[in-house]
């Protein structure tokens, strides 16, 4: 699997250092959790911080928007150098338009589903998305416990992907560690987001390498 460390659990006073550690350890993506204190009950960081980090890393920047008006953030994120923008299905009445806006801004489009939202809502979107992010915890906070019922959703999505001959990435986010990553991969997930498992450890580099090792890359 591709590994996407989430800086939500990194040392905010040493973000550049922490990003370099996971980049040198072989991570593919950097997962950036933007929260507005409205769509989710927590605040994190926004575009200016992402813009400041961009020149110091070659990682693919994958922004997970947990905000109530995602349309307001798409152009600024693209201009800040983010390559993948993820919008929650639950955050907008116009998810198809969000995908179009993301593509118009020159980025890859990712649709994110909360644990309580079924895969069936994606039916019309699957041919046009570049990635689907399945939340394996409720969004808003790092360090929560993996919700096992989400495994079946990953399998359902992977079945649809295969049946339609599509190539979008299947990302998982929340409670990912050396065990849950393997369970998700077995159902068809291709990208593992990991926050606390990577950064709240003695060696973030060793944790990235361990995730690669257990998921066969
Ligand atoms: C939660 C965020 C996650 C978070 C994951 O809303 O979307 O990306 O950083 O943290 P862990 O890996 O600790 O569950
Ligand atoms: Zn996230």
UniProtKB/TrEMBL annotation:
Domain of life of the native organism: Bacteria
UniProt keyword annotations, A-Z: Carbohydrate metabolism, Cobalt, Isomerase, Manganese, Metal-binding, Zinc
Cofactor: a divalent metal cation; Co(2+); Zn(2+); Mn(2+)
Pathway: Carbohydrate degradation
Enzyme Commission identifier(s): 5.1.3.1
Enzyme class: isomerase
Catalytic residues (UniProt): 33, 173
GO cellular component: cytoplasm
Reactions mediated catalytically: D-ribulose 5-phosphate = D-xylulose 5-phosphate
Molecular function as annotated in GO: D-ribulose-phosphate 3-epimerase activity; metal ion binding
GO terms under biological process: pentose catabolic process; pentose-phosphate shunt
Co-factor binding details: Binds 1 divalent metal cation per subunit.
Record-linked Gene3D superfamilies: Aldolase class I (3.20.20.70)
InterPro entries: Aldolase_TIM, Ribul_P_3_epim, Ribul_P_3_epim-like, RibuloseP-bd_barrel
Biological function: Catalyzes the reversible epimerization of D-ribulose 5-phosphate to D-xylulose 5-phosphate.
Family of the protein in this entry: Belongs to the ribulose-phosphate 3-epimerase family.
Protein's name in the database: Ribulose-phosphate 3-epimerase
Organism: Liquorilactobacillus satsumensis DSM 16230 = JCM 12392
């Amino acid at each position: 699997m591709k590994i996407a460390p989430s800086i939500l659990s990194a040392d905010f006073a040493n973000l550049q250092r922490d990003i370099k550690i996971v980049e040198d350890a072989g991570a593919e993506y950097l997962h950036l959790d933007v929260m507005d204190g409205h769509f989710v009950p927590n605040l994190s960081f926004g575009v200016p911080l992402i813009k400041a980090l961009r020149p110091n890393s070659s990682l693919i920047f994958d922004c997970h928007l947990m905000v109530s008006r995602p349309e307001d953030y798409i152009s600024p994120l693209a201009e800040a150098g983010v390559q993948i923008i993820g919008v929650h299905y639950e955050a907008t009445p116009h998810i198809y338009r969000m995908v179009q806006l993301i593509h118009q801004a020159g980025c890859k489009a990712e649709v994110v589903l909360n644990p309580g939202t079924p895969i069936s809502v994606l039916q019309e979107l699957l041919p046009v998305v570049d990635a689907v992010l399945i939340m394996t915890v409720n969004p808003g906070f790092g360090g929560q416990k993996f919700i096992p019922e989400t495994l079946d959703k990953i399998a359902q999505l992977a079945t649809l992907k295969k049946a339609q001959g599509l190539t979008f990435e299947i990302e998982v986010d929340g409670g990912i560690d050396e065990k849950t990553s393997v369970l998700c991969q077995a159902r068809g997930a291709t990208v593992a987001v990991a926050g606390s498992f990577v950064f709240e450890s003695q060696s973030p580099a060793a944790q990235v390498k361990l995730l690669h090792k257990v998921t066969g890359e």
